Structure formats: structure tokens, C-alpha cells
Task: inverse folding
């Protein structure tokens, strides 16, 4: 009796209209969202018809990335990486960790150690993430390099075995890429067919932008705000490693965060490396390996991976593209 | 015949004035909202600062570590000082194009350039 | 007015039907008259037809208000040749929003308000309902909401105007025996439903 029926019907119709408006505008929406994760800016772009679905997918993707970061980063006390580093023989790890390590070991082997996941002590010594990094002495470096190398680490099922007790695992050169791959899987599970996940320059492009293939600008290693090249890709990973991202300067010399396992110091062969391949984890590992190897040996390694292309900017600024790189480059 | 003012009750006035107030506030808000390309700063989930990219200014942004200073000038929006250890945010340079991102990760400040007309940059994402 | 149906209830119901039909006719006429007048902003009209909806609400009940407003939109669009055109959907959504809101406000705080307040609220609902429809059907862009504050501002005034005109009409009608014998006077209405 208090409410008359037409009133209720009228209100329900209005609410339905609003609800429908909220979820389905009938045209393609592009949702862009960024968060600070894994110590960098993570940006997710997704495109689709249903805003609700897009936002749910993005939230789940970020959640998965945060979860995996806690597992794989050496900056957390309870991560698999820290546990293994602190254990004397290694330890049991989650399947995801094992997956990353397996891939990393393969790249490490094929790059003859240029890509190395055992540099935890070295990185801690240099303190590249800390307040006041200083250049360590040669003795300190030598000590940190003891027992280091891809042979020092092996995987037996879900058991990560290390050859020497003081070995510290660091997955910094591959974990971010792996985490991006997993985020893309989450997006796909939500039915997303067009999107991108970009974690500080390590990215995967799913499908294509609503109007054109994804256009990726590659940062110029020496010009702030400048673009070295633009590539157009779909369903590919693009990873760039550069000496300009995290570095400190001492006595006029720049010391960045990509270490050469042989010298224990930052690799000097390149200014930046960009790799286009099928998974971001592989791209991440390859970019690191290429950076250490330098242009010549780097391109040789890349030739071993059909389907992967790269652009190496040597230390002197010259450009060294791989064979099929030009197929991707659209500018300049 | 009574005029409207003689007929209107207190409740009527409440409704009328509220509606007028809301609409005027809405008009004022729209008039002053940044148009064109804007600089959007977020800390965590909250948007803490929005401004026109065309209007030179500088602002101190609060984070857990202290104040990060953002300057907007003809080069774009860039960080000039920050309490973080590595000062990576400063070395990132200016953000200018729609979609450009800057951040001081330790101080949890993120800067984004947004353009209502859509994407005006020559690329969709930047690999650095 | 006497008739052969001696039953008071049937008499009242017959009267109601007749008057609602008259209200509808008046509402449609007002609607058409208004549409002939020029207006600076499209679809920004005084909403004079709302006077009849308000009268129906105050003299009878919410259902009567729905009857008058929906019939007015339907017949008005039919006669103007705009049935099922985009303008029709805008008018319909506006009318649904306005009528719902007016009935609600009348029900909840009718004691504290005169028809002017109810009308102002209805006018606001009408404006927002129209913009919502425009957003869904015509302009698929969030930018349409930017005209909302301006629209709202003007409709408050037209709402007050139509409310006042409704008050004048109601004062005249209440004095008519047709409404006194059925015992539905203005202030008794609030307690009826």
C-alpha cells in the first residue's frame, strides 16, 4: 500500500538504464591503469566493450603481479629467493619460481653465463638500490663473485639446489618479465583480446590496439624524452634494458645496474638493448644477456633464437639491429 | 492570487535553494576544471593533484618519505627534488605526451599525462 | 451534478475518469503549444504540461499522475509526429524520472511542501532523465554530462513557475463541487495512500 506499482516500475526502469549504461556503452573503451609495483611503474591498458569486465581484469592482473613479486623478489624477507639465498643448500620453491629458474638457466647456459641468476651478493655489495652506493674494492668484488655462475645453481623438481652456501640468488633480470607474462594470462582468462602490460619498460602487447597495431616507442639512451625508434607489434613481448635507468655516478663514471658476471662491475658494451620476442621472461633474460655480451656476441646469441629480434645500441652509440628487426620498426 | 513567494513553504525553499546551489556549484566546477591536456598526480589510490599542462607552476607533493617537488613548465612536467635515495624520478626527465608516466617509487608518487581528446603521442607505450 | 448511478463509489470513479481525461487533453494541448514556441536550448521547455500531472497528483493520487504524464507523452508525440523518434525517448525518460521523483517527494515530505517544491524536484528529475537518455541514445560520450549543471539551473525556475501555476489551478478546482463531494481536498490527500 505505501508504494504504488507504477512508481516502483518507473524507478526500476531508471535504475536498469543506469546500470546498463555503466557496464556497456556499446563502443570500444580503452582502460588505462597504472600502479607502483615491483619497484617501478606498472601500466596496464585493456580494450573492450564492457567497462566492468575490463576493470575486473585489470584488478586481478595487478593482484597476481603483486603476489608473484612477493615470491620472486630478493627484497622480501619471506620470498622464495631470500629463503633459498639464506639456506645452505637451497630449498623447495613454488612451481612459479621453478618455472622462472628453469627458463633462466636455459638462457644462462646458452649465453655462456652472460645471463646469471647468482649475483645476489654482488648486487647487495654494490648497493645499487640503496641510499649511497659506492664503488666496492676489487677484493670485495672478488669475494662476492666466489662460487658464482650458472653451474652453481640447479633445479631438481621443485628443489632449487645451490653449490655453495653463501650463494645468493637474484632473479632481477628475469622475474619482472615472467610476472608480466603471468599478468597477461590473467587478462586472457578474463576474455581480453586487446591490451598491454608494461612494467617499467618490460611489456607484452596482446592483440592490437583498437585502431592499429600497438606502437611502442623505444627510449633514446642519451636523449631525455627522445625516441630512438618506434616499432609496431602484435602478440609480442618488447623488453628494453638500458644503462640510464638505475645508476649512480662516482668520479665522473657512471655505474648502472646490469652487471657483467666476469668482471663483477657494470657491463660496458652497450648503452641499451631492446628485444622483441614471444615471452617477456625470455625477452628480459635475453636483453640482460645481450647487454653483457655487447653488440657482436649479442647478435650471435640472438641468432640462436629464431623468432626473436633485437636492437643493440653499442657503447659508442652505433645501432646494431638483428636481421629481422626492420620488419618491426616503423619509425624513423 | 498569491505570488509564489507567499505560497512557498520552508521545505520548498530548501529544495529550490539546494537545487540551485548544486547547479551553480556544478557550473563553477566545470568552468575551473583543467581543460585540454592535464597532469594527474596520484599517491596510492588517491588523486592528489590535477593541473593543466599548459599552465606553468610548481607544487610539492606529499608522500611517506617527504615532499616531492613537481614543476610544470614549457618542457613538460618533471620532478626537481625528492627525498628518495636514488633520485631516479628526477633522472626520468619531463613528461609531455598523453600517456607519459613519471614516478617516485619510494615516495609513492605517480605522475600521468592525460589528454581528453585521446591519444596524441606518436606511440602507445614507451619501452625504456 | 446528479446521474443515474446512485452508488457513491461508482460516481467517484466515473468522475475521476472524466477529469483525468480532461487533464490529459489539457496536458497534451499545453505540450503542443509549448513545442511551437522557440527555445534557445533544444528540448529546454517550460514543461507547462506538468501542471496537469501535478494537479492529478494532488487531487487524486500517484497512479493518476502516472496516467496523465504517460498519456501526455504518448499522445503528444503522436500528434506532433514524433512517436519513437529520439526526441520521444528523451521526453519519455524525462517524464518517467520527473513523475517518479514527484510522487516520491510528495509521499515522503508532502506535509512540508507546497506543489512548488514538488514541481521543482520534478523539473530537476525531468532534466536529468533527459540527459541520461541523450547520453544513452544520441551522444555516446561522457561529455554530455557537462550541460547538466546549466540545464538544472534553468529547470529549477521553470519548475517553480509550473508549480505556482498548478497552485492557482488547484485553488480554483478545489472550490468546484465536483471535488468537494468526493471529499478529496488538498490537504487530505497526503494521508490517503
Result:
Amino acid at each position: 500500500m505505501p508504494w504504488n506499482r507504477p512508481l516502483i516500475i518507473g524507478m526500476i526502469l531508471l535504475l536498469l538504464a543506469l546500470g546498463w549504461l555503466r557496464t556497456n556503452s556499446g563502443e570500444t573503451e580503452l582502460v588505462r591503469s597504472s600502479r607502483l609495483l615491483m619497484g617501478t611503474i606498472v601500466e596496464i591498458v585493456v580494450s573492450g566493450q564492457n567497462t566492468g569486465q575490463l576493470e575486473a581484469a585489470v584488478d586481478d592482473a595487478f593482484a597476481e603481479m603483486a603476489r608473484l613479486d612477493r615470491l620472486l623478489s630478493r627484497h622480501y624477507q619471506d620470498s622464495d629467493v631470500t629463503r633459498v639465498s639464506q639456506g645452505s643448500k637451497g630449498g623447495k620453491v613454488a612451481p612459479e619460481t621453478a618455472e622462472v629458474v628453469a627458463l633462466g638457466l636455459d638462457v644462462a647456459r646458452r649465453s655462456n653465463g652472460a645471463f646469471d641468476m647468482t649475483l645476489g651478493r654482488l648486487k647487495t655489495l654494490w648497493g645499487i638500490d640503496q641510499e649511497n652506493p659506492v664503488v666496492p674494492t676489487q677484493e670485495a668484488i672478488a669475494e662476492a663473485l666466489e662460487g658464482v655462475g650458472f653451474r652453481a645453481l640447479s633445479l631438481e623438481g621443485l628443489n632449487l639446489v645451490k653449490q655453495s652456501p653463501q650463494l645468493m640468488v637474484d632473479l632481477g633480470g628475469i622475474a619482472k618479465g615472467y610476472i608480466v607474462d603471468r599478468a597477461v594470462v590473467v587478462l586472457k582468462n578474463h576474455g581480453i583480446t586487446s591490451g598491454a602490460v608494461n612494467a617499467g619498460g618490460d611489456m607484452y602487447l596482446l592483440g592490437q590496439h583498437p585502431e592499429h597495431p600497438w606502437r611502442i616507442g623505444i627510449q633514446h639512451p642519451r636523449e631525455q624524452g627522445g625516441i630512438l625508434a618506434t616499432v609496431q607489434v602484435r602478440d609480442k613481448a618488447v623488453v628494453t634494458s638500458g644503462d640510464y635507468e638505475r645508476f649512480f655516478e662516482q668520479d665522473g663514471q657512471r655505474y648502472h645496474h646490469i652487471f657483467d658476471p666476469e668482471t663483477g662491475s657494470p657491463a660496458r658494451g652497450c648503452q641499451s638493448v631492446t628485444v622483441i620476442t614471444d615471452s617477456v621472461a625470455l625477452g628480459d633474460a635475453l636483453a640482460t644477456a645481450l647487454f653483457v655480451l655487447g653488440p657482436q656476441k649479442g647478435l650471435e646469441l640472438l641468432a640462436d633464437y629464431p623468432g626473436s629480434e633485437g636492437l643493440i645500441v653499442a657503447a659508442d652509440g652505433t645501432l646494431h639491429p638483428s636481421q629481422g628487426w626492420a620488419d618491426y620498426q616503423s619509425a624513423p | 492570487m498569491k505570488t509564489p513567494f507567499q505560497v512557498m513553504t520552508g521545505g520548498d525553499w530548501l529544495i529550490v535553494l539546494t537545487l540551485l546551489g548544486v547547479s551553480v556549484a556544478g557550473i563553477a566546477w566545470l568552468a575551473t576544471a583543467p581543460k585540454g591536456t592535464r597532469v594527474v598526480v596520484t599517491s596510492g589510490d588517491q588523486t592528489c593533484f590535477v593541473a593543466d599542462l599548459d599552465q606553468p607552476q610548481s607544487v610539492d607533493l606529499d608522500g611517506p618519505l617527504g615532499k616531492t617537488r613537481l614543476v610544470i613548465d614549457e618542457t613538460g612536467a618533471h620532478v626537481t627534488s625528492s627525498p628518495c635515495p636514488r633520485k631516479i624520478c628526477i633522472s626520468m626527465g619531463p613528461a609531455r605526451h598523453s600517456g607519459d608516466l613519471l614516478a617516485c617509487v619510494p615516495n609513492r608518487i605517480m605522475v600521468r599525462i592525460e589528454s581528453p581528446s585521446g591519444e596524441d603521442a606518436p606511440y602507445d607505450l614507451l619501452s625504456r | 451534478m446528479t446521474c443515474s448511478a446512485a452508488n457513491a463509489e461508482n460516481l467517484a470513479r466515473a468522475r475521476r475518469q472524466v477529469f483525468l481525461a480532461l487533464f490529459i487533453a489539457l496536458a497534451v494541448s499545453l505540450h503542443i503549444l509549448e513545442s511551437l514556441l522557440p527555445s534557445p536550448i533544444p528540448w529546454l521547455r517550460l514543461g507547462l504540461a506538468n501542471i496537469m500531472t501535478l494537479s492529478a497528483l494532488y487531487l487524486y493520487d500517484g497512479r493518476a499522475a502516472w496516467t496523465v504524464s504517460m498519456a501526455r507523452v504518448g499522445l503528444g508525440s503522436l500528434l506532433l509526429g514524433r512517436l519513437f523518434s529520439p526526441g520521444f525517448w528523451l521526453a519519455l525518460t524525462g517524464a518517467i524520472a520527473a513523475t517518479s521523483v514527484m510522487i516520491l517527494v510528495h509521499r515522503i515530505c508532502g506535509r512540508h511542501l507546497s506543489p512548488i517544491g514538488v514541481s521543482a524536484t520534478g523539473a530537476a528529475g525531468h532534466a536529468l532523465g533527459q540527459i541520461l537518455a541523450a547520453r544513452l541514445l544520441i551522444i555516446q560520450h561522457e561529455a554530455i554530462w557537462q550541460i547538466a549543471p546549466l540545464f538544472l539551473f534553468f529547470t529549477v525556475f521553470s519548475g517553480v513557475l509550473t508549480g505556482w501555476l498548478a497552485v492557482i489551478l488547484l485553488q480554483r478546482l478545489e472550490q468546484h463541487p465536483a471535488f468537494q463531494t468526493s471529499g478529496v481536498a488538498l490537504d487530505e490527500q497526503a494521508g490517503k495512500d
Q: What stands out?
A: The radius of gyration of chain A is 23 Å. Chain A has a mean pLDDT of 90. Residues 280-303 of chain A form the longest helix (24 residues).
